[in-house]
Amino acid sequence: MTQYAILLYTPAPADMADMPVEEQEAHMRHAAEAEDLGGHVVTGFALQPSTTATSVRADTVTDGPFIEAKEVIAGFYILEAQDLDHALQIAKRNPATWRGGVEIRPLLG
Amino acid sequence: MTDRAAEVREAVAEAHRAQWALVLSATVRLARDLDLAEECVQEAYAQALAAWARDGIPDNPAAWLVTTAKRRALDAIRREQVFRAKLPQLLVPDEAGAPDAAGGHPPAPDFIDDPADYIPDDRLRLVFTCCHPALARDAQVALTLRLVCGVGTGDIAQASLVSEATMAARVTRAKKKITAARIPFRVPQGRDLPERLDAVLSVIHLLYTTGHTAPSGDQLLRADLADRALHLSRMLHALMPDEPEVSGLLALLLLTDARRATRTDAQGRLLRLAEQDRTRWDRTAITEGRNLILRGMRLGRPGRYLLQAAIAALHADAPRYEDTDWPQIVSLYDRLRQVWPSPVVALNRAVALAMAAGPGTGLREVEALESDPRLAGYHYLPAIKADLLHRLGRHAEAATAYRAALDLTDNAAERKYLAGRLREVTGP
């Protein structure tokens, strides 16, 4: 099994208060869905909206996310899957893809 | 002695052309590392030159090459065992229980006496790995040429119009991603197959069109790339004979390639379909293409490659340009537009419509397409518009359109053609 970080992107500022109820409910079900498909969610986190983010570049501190974009990171989880195809099969079902998208990055080592 | 050396060189070159993918994919299974496998296969081919000159050309050159490459891979693995244990390795799922889409690994056929001569055919896995959607299209093309066709990085760079350093970096990055992200060395199955197969067909088609009409430079035809694409298409068809779109692509390439010798005149000037010497079209290729279409059509609802091939077949069947069945071609374009809603298809349909219903009707369609942003910068649009205006006798407007097309075209043969047409409408 390989571990992947699944980074969830939704429209800025990715505030849970803006998330439709059915999307929230689907997020709650996602880990069980991953297990049903033979994967395993090791751990996962949802984040406060990007309006609460603070960034540091060199020694300058600024308000807001590191990269200004229409979509920002809303959360992430660590997924254990057999291979990239398997991880894709599971990550495609994540509700973040409804209004935004996901990025799949293998963990180093 | 020199005869013999030449014979061996030819045998090695032939084994390289025909068996590279088979030898590499079989070695990958053991080496579990694309770089190591490639290196070992290259060494095996180099070793074959001396060994075959000394011991004679083996009955089964591919088996000889696989055995030699695998032995080298084993040596390397033993040498670097500790080091390799820490590195991620290419994932080669064992699918003994689950057959591949193409039927999986059959047991060694009875007619092979020595089981050691049997090589599991992993070529499909190699092709699907190189064309995985997690890789960018340019990386898919580069990897396919490099790993499936065995083309050197320098040659791939030249064909892709980038520097060798850029191409080498592209190939290295793609191979690293395959290992790090664990793109499996596997043939996709079930629901995933159609989409994944489409990527493979697109890569082969792109290779052919790149070879057929080089985007710039003097040579209209980079014959080698077109040949590679045909070879790949043939290999894919042999491995997946029941996939209609695989038959469709091979048919399309064969029917297009049948006209290869007549696309330019002795001076390298581009000849239109109407001007080509149809007696010199390759009838064997046309017949083979037509049979593939007939068989493919029986396998199900035709997709974009099969429909494009059917259009090419109608052109091939007409003894003279004016005998072409234009209404039938228009209706095939209508079906093509349903499965593949591309503005380029609509543009080609307009050309056929102009032949079936007159240049004025075609021109209206072309003008309607001019506002499509996806066709902005597509030089065939003003070129087609110019030809239609020319046929309607509207010479000044035709000249403007030819100039617009010239501004967008880099290919020397195509520029020469457009400049010639421009002179026809502007007078001496």
TrEMBL record, chain A:
Q: Superkingdom, according to UniProt?
A: Bacteria
What name goes with this protein? YCII-related domain-containing protein
* Residues of the signal peptide: none
Identify its protein family: Belongs to the YciI family.
Q: Pinpoint the YCII-related domain residues.
A: 24-107
Which Gene3D superfamilies does its entry note? Dimeric alpha+beta barrel
Pfam families associated with the record: YCII
Q: Which organism is it from?
A: Planotetraspora thailandica
TrEMBL record, chain B:
**Which biological process, per GO, is one annotated for this protein?**
DNA-templated transcription initiation
Q: What is the lineage of its organism?
A: Bacteria, Bacillati, Actinomycetota, Actinomycetes, Streptosporangiales
Name of the coding gene: rpoE_12
Task: Describe the location of the DUF6596 domain by residue ranges.
Answer: 196-294
- InterPro entries per UniProt: DUF6596, RNA_pol_sigma70_r2, RNA_pol_sigma70_r4_t2, RNA_pol_sigma_r2, RNA_pol_sigma_r3/r4-like
Renumbered to this chain, the signal peptide range is none
Provide the RNA polymerase sigma factor 70 region 4 type domain boundaries.
Answer: 128-178
Molecular functions (GO terms): DNA binding; sigma factor activity
Q: Where is the RNA polymerase sigma-70 region domain?
A: 22-81
What name does UniProt use for this protein?
A: RNA polymerase subunit sigma-24
Is Transcription regulation a UniProt keyword of this protein?
Answer: yes
